[in-house]
Amino acid sequence: GQVFHLEDYKPTDFLIPETHLDFALHPERSIVKSTLRIERRQGTAADAPLVLDGDELNLVDIRIDGAPLGDNTYVATPDRLEIRGLPESGAFTLELTTEINPSTNRQLTGLYRSSNVYCTQCEAEGFRRITYFLDRPDLLSVYTVRIEAERSEAPLLLSNGNPKDKGTLTNGRHFAVWHDPHPKPAYLFALVAGDLGLIKDTFTTASGRHVDLGIYVEHGKEPRALYAMDALKRSMKWDEEVFGREYDLDVFNVVAVSDFNMGAMENKGLNVFNDKYVLADPDTATDTDYAGIEAVIAHEYFHNWTGNRITCRDWFQLCLKEGLTVYRDHEFSADMRSRPVKRIAEVKGLKAHQFPEDAGPLAHPVRPRQFREINNFYTSTVYEKGSEVVRMIRTILGPELFRKGMDLYFERHDGDAATIEDFIKVFEDASGEDLSQFAFWYDQAGTPNLAITYDYDPATKTFEIEIEQSIKPTPGQPSKKPMHIPVQFALLGAKGRELKPRSAKGGLVKDDVIHLRKRKERFSFSGISERPVPSLLRGFSAPVTLTSELTRSDLVFLARNDGDEVTRWQALTQLLNAKLTSNSKRVRGGKPATIENSSIKLLGEIAFNPALDEAFRALSLSIPSESDIARELGANIDPDAILGSRDALVSAVAKAHAERFAELYDDLDQTGPFQPDAASAGRRALRNVLLDYRSVAQGTPKLAAAQFKHADNMTDRAAALGVLVQRFGGTDATCEALRAFEERFGNDPLVMDKWFVVQAMQPGSEALGKVRGLMTHKLFSLDNPNRTRALIGAFSSGNQTGFNRADGHGYRFFAETVLTIDKKNPQLAARLLTAMRSWRSFEPVRREHAREALATIATVTGLSTDVRDIVERTLA
Ligand code: HT7
Ligand code: ZN
C-alpha cells in the first residue's frame, strides 16, 4: 500500500470557499448533490487538473457552471475524480451528484444507518464516501446543508451550524436547511436524520450569547441523558473560566447512536456520540461510566476550540488537536473530582496502554512522520502521550506562561489549519524560552528511562542526584537524542517533612523542577541537614520510567509519608511489583510464592487511614493487575504463573486483615439515594475492593451473591458480578447471578455489554469456550462495535490467562474472528488486532503460537489496508 510522508506536504491547487450539500435521504438510495464554489489558488498552473478524493462513490451527474461535462473532460472512478479543461478564470461552480447506500455501510464511516437513524462519521477520511471533495483537513469551506427525508422515518433533520429553514414537501417528505458560518474541514461535517427523543437545556455564554442545547437519544431513554447534559453545561462554563473560550453558535446538539467506531466525534455544533458515552442512570451505569461520560462530553466540547476553530494542517499533526484536547479534558475532570486520584488514574492508563505501545512493534512518535493508514494512528501515543507533552510544557513554563501561550495560540491561529511547530512557537514567544530540545518529545518514539543514583555527604550537608536518560530503539529510530525532561521533586526528611535546599548546582533546577537536558547530569543540593529520601517525578511530571537506587525501606517510607499522593502511590506500586514479579518467576519455576509481612502491614495502614481519601485507598489496595505484572516482567511472560503470584498476594492480604476489612466494608455501606459524585464513588470503590478481599478470605461466593442481589446501583451490582465470575466462575451462585442479570437487562444491549465483558474476562482456559458460546447469543453481533469490543476486545486485551493459552487456541480463534470482522469493519478489526502487539514478550511456546496466528492473517489476500498495516508492523 501507499505510504504517506510528512515531508511531502503541499497545499492544494484549488480552494473551495463554499460548499452546498443537498441530501435526498433514502435507506438504500440516498442522493447527494453537492455544489462547490471552486477557485484556483494563486500560483497554480492554468492547465492544472482538479483532482478530488472519493471512496466507493458512484457519480450520477457532473456539471460546471450549470453545463453537463463531456466524457473526455473528466475521469471518475469510485475513489477519484479528475477534471481537465477547467474554465480559464479558475473560478467556477462544480455540481456533483452521487448515489450512496447507507444501509449496507457496515464500516460506519461516511453516511450510514444505525438503528434506522441516518448518521455520518467523516474523520479522518469519511467525507469522500459521501461526495468527491478535497478531503483533507487544511481545506476549509463554509457549508450550507439541505436535508430532505420521509417525515415518518426521519422527523428529525440535523446538520452543523445554525438552523435556517424547514418545511413540508409532497408525498410525506420534509426538509431542513442548516448553515455553519465557521469555515471547516470536511472531516467536521455531520448529518443526522431519524426519529429520536430529545432533552433540551440552555446555556448563556459569558458575553451573553444564548445557546440552545439538545441531546438526542433513543425514545424512552431521555432521562438517561440528564447527566450528560449536566456535564456539557459544566464543560462550557469551565472552558470560559479556565481557558477563556466561549461557544460560538446558537445551538449545540449531541446525538447518541448505538453503532459507532470510537467514543464520539466533535463535528461542529453537532457532536455524534457512541451511546455508551451519553446514557447513564444509577441502575444501568457504573461510576466508571459516569466518569467516562463526563470526560468524553467535555473532550468533544473542548474540541470546538482545539480542533475546530484551530484545526490540523494534515493528519500527521493529529496530536495538535487530540493531545491538547485530552490534556484539557483531564484538567476538567481533575477540577470536577479529586485531582490526585484523577492523576493516578491517568498514570495507570498511560502505563497500561501507552507504555506497551511505546515498547512494542507499533511504537511511533507523538507526531508520526509516515503512515499507510491514518485510522491506525488514533492511538494512546497520539492522545495520551500527546497530552503528557502538553502537561510538560505547563510544568516547564509554569501556569501563568502556559496560559499566556495558550491565549496567544487562540489569538494567532484562530481559523487556521496549524502545525506542531506553530504550537511550540506560541509558548516560545510567550515565555522567551527555547523549546527546540523539548520538541523532540513530538518526534522521538519510546519511553525514556531515567537511571538515578544518589549520594549524601553529611560533612558538607550536600545531596547529589545523578540522572542518566536513555530510550530503547523503536521502529525506524535506532538511536535517540537526549530530551528536555521535567522532573518535579522534593527531598524528604523524617516523617516526610520537605527539606528545602539552600542552593542547587550542576544542571538546571527551578523551584521544585529538575530540568534534565543532557544524557547524564548531576544535580547537587546544599544545606540538607539529614540524609533525605528523594520523592521524584511528583505528579508524574514526565511520561518516563525510573530505575532508582531507592531501597525497600525508602519505598516504604515514601508510601507512608510522601505528601504527593501520586509518588506515594507510585512507591507502593513499585514495592508490590517487585514482590509480584519475583513471585511470578518462583511460581513458573514450581516454587511457592513468598510474602513479607511489611507489605501486608502497609496495605492495612492505608486501608484503615481515615485521613486518606477513600478513592485513593481503593487505588492503593487494588493489587497491580496481571497485565501490569506482565509489563513489569517485560519478557518470558507466563500468564498462569502471574495469576498464581497475584492470587497469592491477594489471599495473604485478605486473610491477614479479614476482620478489619469486614468492619470497614460494613462501615462503608451507603444509605440514601445513589449520587454519582467523586466522594460517593470513592466509597463504593473502596467497599468493592474489600468485597473481593473478603470473598477470597471466606472462600465462598456468599457475600458477593448477597451484594449482587441487594445492590441498588450498577456499580455495586457489576462489582459483585465481577467477583463472582473472577473468583467463583462456574458455581451455582455465579450462574444464578448471570442469569438474573440477563433476565433483568436482556433488552438493553448497552447494559448487557457488562455481562459480555465479565464473562470474557473469566480467568483460565474455559473462557475461550464461553466466548465462542456467547457469540451465538441473540444480542451479540460482530456488526456492532460495542458488542464486539465487549466480548472479543475484553477477551483479547483483558483476559491474560484465557486469551494467551499455552495451546495457542486463543490466538487462533482471535485470528479467525479478526478476519471475519475485517470484511465488515476494517477500522474495528485493526484496532482489535493491536491486542497482539506485545506477542514477543511471551515465553517461547506462546510466542510461537502468536507468531503463527499473526502469520495466518498476513497471508490472507484481500486484507483491508487497516489490518494489513497493523499485522505487518506487528510482525516486522
Ligand atoms: N476526533 C474523533 C476521532 C474519531 C474517529 C477517528 C477515526 C474513525 C472514527 C472516529 N470517530 C471519532 C474523536 C475524538 O478524539 O474526539
Ligand atoms: Zn479528540
TrEMBL record:
It catalyses: Release of an N-terminal amino acid, Xaa-|-Yaa- from a peptide, amide or arylamide. Xaa is preferably Ala, but may be most amino acids including Pro (slow action). When a terminal hydrophobic residue is followed by a prolyl residue, the two may be released as an intact Xaa-Pro dipeptide. The keyword Metal-binding applies. Residues 553-876 form the Peptidase M1 alanyl aminopeptidase C-terminal domain. GO terms for molecular function: alanyl aminopeptidase activity; metallopeptidase activity; zinc ion binding. Its EC number is 3.4.11.2. It comes from the Bacteria. Residues 227-438 form the Peptidase M1 membrane alanine aminopeptidase domain. Its cofactor is Zn(2+). It is an enzyme of class 3 (hydrolase). Residues 446-548 form the Peptidase M1 alanyl aminopeptidase Ig-like fold domain. GO terms for biological process: proteolysis. Residues 21-188 form the Aminopeptidase N-like N-terminal domain. Keywords: Aminopeptidase, Hydrolase, Metal-binding, Metalloprotease, Protease, Zinc. InterPro entries: Aminopeptidase_N-like_N, Aminopeptidase_N-like_N_sf, PepN_Ig-like_sf, Peptidase_M1, Peptidase_M1_dom, Peptidase_M1_pepN, Peptidase_M1_pepN_C, Peptidase_M1_pepN_C_sf. PANTHER family: PUROMYCIN-SENSITIVE AMINOPEPTIDASE. Belongs to the peptidase M1 family. Aminopeptidase N is involved in the degradation of intracellular peptides generated by protein breakdown during normal growth as well as in response to nutrient starvation. This is Aminopeptidase N.
